[in-house]
Amino acid sequence: MLLALRDADSDPADFPSDAFMDEPDPATYRQARLSPNWRQWHKAIQSEIDGILQPDRADPVTAFPPGSTVLPSKFVFKLKKLTDGSLDKFKARCTTRGDMDRTFYEEAETFAPTPQLTTFRLLLALCLKHRLMPYHYDVSQAFLQALIPEDERYYVRFPKGYIHPKGYVGAYMKKALYGHRTSGRLWSETAHRFMTDRYPTLSRSTYDECLYIGWIDTQLFIVLIYVDDFIVACADELSRARFHTDIMSTFQATYSGVLNQFLQLRVDVQTETLPTGESYPTRIELSHERSITDLCAKFSIDTDKQPPRSPMAEGLSLPIPPPDTIDRSIETPLKSLIYSLLWLARTVRPDIYYHVTYLAQFCHQPTVEALTAAKRILHYAYSTREYTLGMTIDSTAPQLTAFCDSDHAGDTATRNSVSGYCLYFHGMLIDWWSKKQKSCTALHSTEAEYVAMSEACTSALAIYNTLTEFFPSAEPITINVDNSAVQTLVTQRALSSKLKHIAVRYHAVRNWCQGPLRKFTPVWIPTDDNQSDIFTKALPITKHGVPIIDKFTARLLDIKDRRVKLVEKLRAAEAQKLHAQQQQLQQQQRQDQIVLASLQRQNLIG
């Protein structure tokens, strides 16, 4: 109520200077003015507008020409925090309604590439393999540094409620503004020109256009561009200093040092120092601990209760509700929770990936049971929030090792099988997924395993091609399966007549596993050693509880150090208990000796 009584025209100096961290982000300019953080929001707004009205970016106008197309705009407010929960900055982004620009609606190209999360993890793995240090650069107002062609420029009206001190009502944009349909493409082309002009020795990956790899003065140099974030990996300090000078002189950018945060992920780079004074990474850990804590507060998870020992009950099968019984009131919270859990599972928590993707089918047909199951997954993630996706180079492991598995007719509603897959680069997990086999219904388990292996090879082949593009000596991929019949099917020359009804696209795996130019080497392993089993079904508590530390979770999340600490803690507790028992026994022996000596004295006296 106090916020509603505030004068919207109050001066920012009348508001407290300290930030209120628990305040929600304003949705409109008026809400920002009524917020107790108005002093900080006002500074962020002025900084954004000043950046837009720089002479080389836009021409301010006091009135729009008659008949011109004027696009509306709005402020998007975000209180940005660091991975430890502390305040980073108040950010106000002025965005336009680009969908209302009908001038180039049909013919304008709007595609702008962004890297896959697998590519990001591959970059970190290459840093560990080649002893490269990852550094982070952030380009401020990146889209506003991309030039718009003269025949595509447009007018923008300032957000509703905002009054410029000089009476400007909008601007004629010379450079791209956030929200326009072509801004992403223009910035992507600008960043690519920067890389090709300044670093012609670097090659752009054919399989991920945001990845650049090459050599500068015989030193390996890697750059990954994620919109306005530049991740630079190099071993030579002189090469990094050169890149620092180039990007600072071309764009308005900030240097964050060694990579410690990316897409709200906490990145912990552990290093060692050479006698020459140069450092190199020995282990990298990715975590989402703060995000999990924030999600629990958002969805009212009682973290004081006993946490579940597994993300989902074994064999859980939720019925699809009839259309006339769907409760639409829980659709929005269920979608929000599922999408948040999907982000966790896709980035750093592969141990909950299957469970989240299973519940994702209820986003458009929500049920109370699905919402309860999703909250259980979040509660489990909170109880294990200290788990990190650890990456440590294993020089004895093959370059690429894949695991694939399937659960035949695992979906009880559609009778479709479920495929699971994970990929390691020198012992470091870089890719995983779980999905239903929608294009076919397997008649028996061998067919399901055959389709799962084909899908797994397709995903692993993208990483293999990326590596061979820059490192020609890449080894064939070792793909592990727990079905010996599938191993025989993909290596024999004749195609079994029992598999001819399967779609042709799945038979490509046979070409990849045969001949002198084969890309995969299938290997049979026991089911207990198949790490992709966790991506096909909800495992029992005996597997997903403490014993799974040895079987699956330890390998997927690389929490061997924590397992060692747990064993040491248990051993210390046992030693302390034994020591207490020994002390109690010694005390009892001393008391017995005292009683015996007393009796002996009494006999002598008598």
Automatic annotation (TrEMBL):
Keyword vocabulary terms for this entry: Coiled coil
Taxonomic path: Eukaryota, Viridiplantae, Chlorophyta, Pyramimonadophyceae, Pyramimonadales
Key word Cell wall biogenesis/degradation present: no
Pfam families: RVT_2
InterPro entries listed in its UniProt record: DNA/RNA_pol_sf, RVT_2
Coiled-coil annotated spans: 556-591
Protein name in the entry: Reverse transcriptase Ty1/copia-type domain-containing protein
Domain Reverse transcriptase Ty1/copia-type: 64-271
Organism of this sequence: Cymbomonas tetramitiformis
PANTHER family: GAG-POL-RELATED RETROTRANSPOSON (PTHR11439), PEPTIDE SYNTHASE GLIP-LIKE, PUTATIVE (AFU_ORTHOLOGUE AFUA_3G12920)-RELATED (PTHR11439:SF483)
